[in-house]
Automatic annotation (TrEMBL):
Protein origin, superkingdom: Eukaryota
Membrane protein topology class: Single-pass membrane protein
A Pfam short name: Cyt-b5
Family membership noted in the UniProt record: Belongs to the cytochrome b5 family.
The species this protein was found in: Mytilinidion resinicola
Start and end residues of each Cytochrome b5 heme-binding domain: 5-81
Places the protein is found: Endoplasmic reticulum membrane; Microsome membrane
Keywords noted in UniProt: Electron transport, Endoplasmic reticulum, Heme, Iron, Membrane, Metal-binding, Microsome, Transmembrane, Transmembrane helix, Transport
Protein known as: Cytochrome b5
Membrane-spanning ranges: 115-132
PROSITE patterns: CYTOCHROME_B5_2
Amino acid sequence: MASPMKKFAASEVVLHKQKENLYLLIHDKVYDVSKFIDQHPGGQSVQLDQGGFDATEAFEEVGHSDAAIEFMKTLQIGVLDRQPGDEKILVSSGSAYKNYTKAPSNPSQWGSLRFLFAFVVAIAVFAAWTGVQR
Ligand code: HEM
């Protein structure tokens, strides 16, 4: 049987919010991501933003793959020993990760780029056409 996981007080978890000493709290499980943060496909800042907070909502909203969820088991170092009033310590960190844009595959970005491209082509065609008329 697996050995019981270490129990962390919320007040201890929130102390680990520096890049080289970063704990993430997701679904009341504690993950040490200090060695992983440089390789995180979503970047460092979104994880750093969650240091000292409950990262559950952010993690879920981004929508991680089964592979990511399987991998994160290897980073778990313990569980949160929840006590009344912990919510006050682990207040939500806001929504910096919501500004994350998936570079070229973001459809809304391509939408506006396509519009710009069509606009430039239209001007070029118009300029060529008025040139032919002279
Ligand atoms: C132990 C915790 C975490 C692990 C192991 C992890 C792992 C991963 C992996 C493997 C990916 C690649 C895509 C996938 O397979 O889903 C990813 C993408 C991403 N992650 Fe995390 N992640 C963690 C926590 C977080 C947290 C707390 C945030 C905060 C919002 C976050 C934000 C993102 C973002 C924005 C992406 C990029 C999504 C995309 O471009 O499709 N991750 N993460």
